[in-house]
Amino acid sequence: MQSARRSGRAYDSRVMPRLPFALPCVLVLTSGCAPATPGDHEDGLFDSGTRGTLADGAPFDASTPEGGSPDSPSTPGEAGRGDAARSDSGTPDSGPFEAGSTDGAIASSCPSASAPVDHLSYVPPAFAPADAARLLILGDSLAFGSGASAERLAFGPLFRTNASDVWPAFDSVALESWYRHPLTYANIAVPGATTDDVVQNQLPILRSGGPYTGHTIIVLAAGANDLDNRVALADPTGPVLDHALANLETIIPALRDSTTFPDGSTVMMMDVYDPTDDTGVAGDCTGPQPIPGLAAAFDVWRTRYTEFAMTHGVAMIDILCRFRGHAWNYNHADNPFYRPSDPTFWFRDCGHPNDRGEHEIRRLLFETIDPSHTVTDTGR
Fold first, then answer.
1. Which of 48, 283, 315, 354 would be a feasible disulfide site paired with 348, CB 3.0-4.6 Å?
2. Where is 205: in which H helix or E strand?
């Protein structure tokens, strides 16, 4: 087994004295982390025409997509299978939500690497919509898909429709397969965005395109850059987390607003993952010494985000626990989350998932729609 840590090929150590840790806003050959504009990409990989270019202020076409009728009543066995799958929903699904007790308490740490289910996503009862017309992604560079080698391999496009040439066994793990008709798609996320930026910039864009006919599935990834901006000051929780949650009190109601979404919306939010595998060290991204309190801070964010999701009736997708053991210490047997059955690296750089990581996020998202799709390493 290799003993060397994965090198930080995409990281410029010259910025280390300024900010020793980079989450989804990665400081690569720059002196800062300025947000891009919707449709831009660090590597020029994405065609802005498919990322919801905001013509006339609308982030996507709200009309019925060609080739399907998402707003029509569901037919049993065709569209609307999500409704049947959740017909018994009185409690969260035992697969995606493992709270550590039967009374709904939230586990304070991730399951061990040997646990049957390695993540703690929360899915509310009766969550999956019977049908959907569109998929909307917003938030930061994780939401934008900055780590994917091509746009179609980012989690958003994969969640919409599978890339069969890359993931041939996962054609059914996609919304268009589940609902059996096309969905419109838009991604208005901006690399570098904080929760402040979502409130101030992305929500106005979203509102300007409404109202949207047909049900909308929405995925939000935000908070990593809020946390990133405090790591260098040794203050990764406390006021910064309180502020992010206060912004979520604005964001989530806006994503469920009946004026913008008269036919309803289903909202999923993600926690913040840990590129250090619970060690506080991530190769050249952090330097050789652990950042005090960093690993524990991620668990605090996950717990608080889960509490928020349970209170507000949205899903909380646990990428933190799912990705532990697949980050910068993935090939170290002494990694507390080392996974001998699948010792693979899921990051492109210090904070963005690679194609495998994007695929795993897609799987976690789909687990909220089809509870029979329980995500495990052995089930990949």
1. 354
2. helix 203-209
CA distance 266 to 194: 22
CA distance 288 to 185: 42
How many angstroms separate the CA atoms of 102 and 121, rounded? 15
Residue ranges of the domains in the chain?
111-369
Average pLDDT, the chain: 74
The CA R_g of the chain, rounded to the nearest whole Å, is: 19
Phi, psi of 185 (to 5 degrees): -145, 140
Do residues 252 and 139 make contact, with C-beta atoms less than 8 angstroms apart?
no
What's the pLDDT at 227? 83
Among candidates 17, 43, 135, 40, which has minimal Cα distance to 352?
A: 43
| 111-369: CATH number | 3.40.50.1110
Q: Of 358, 359, 364, nearest to 122 (Cα)? A: 364
Cβ-count burial 266-293 (b if 16+ within 10 Å, e if not): bbbbbbbbbbbbbbbbbbbbbeeeebee
Nearest 5°: CA angle at 55, between 178 and 35? 85
List strands edge to edge, sheet with 265-270: 184-187, 134-139, 216-221, 265-270, 315-317
pLDDT tens figures, 67-106: 333 233 232 233 334 333 333 333 334 444 443 333 457 8
Calpha distance 249→380 (Å, rounded) = 35
Read off the pLDDT of residues 105-116 as tens digits, 9 standing for 90 and up.
Answer: 788 788 887 777
The one-character DSSP state at 200 is: I
Residue 79, burial from CB neighbour count under 10 angstroms (0-12, 13-18, 19+): buried
Q: How many residues does the chain have?
A: 380
Q: Please, are residues 205 and 38 in contact by the beta-carbon 8 Å criterion?
A: yes
Residue 221 contacts residue 140 (beta carbons within 8 Å): yes
Instruction: Give the DSSP letter of residue 347.
Output: B
Q: 3-class DSSP state for residue 112? A: coil
Q: Judge contact between 121 and 376, C-beta under 8 A.
A: no
Spatial CB neighbours of 139, under 8 Å, sequence gap ≥ 6: 189, 193, 198, 202, 219, 220, 221, 222, 270
Determine which helix (DSSP H) or strand (DSSP E) holds 219, and give its type and residue range: strand 216-221
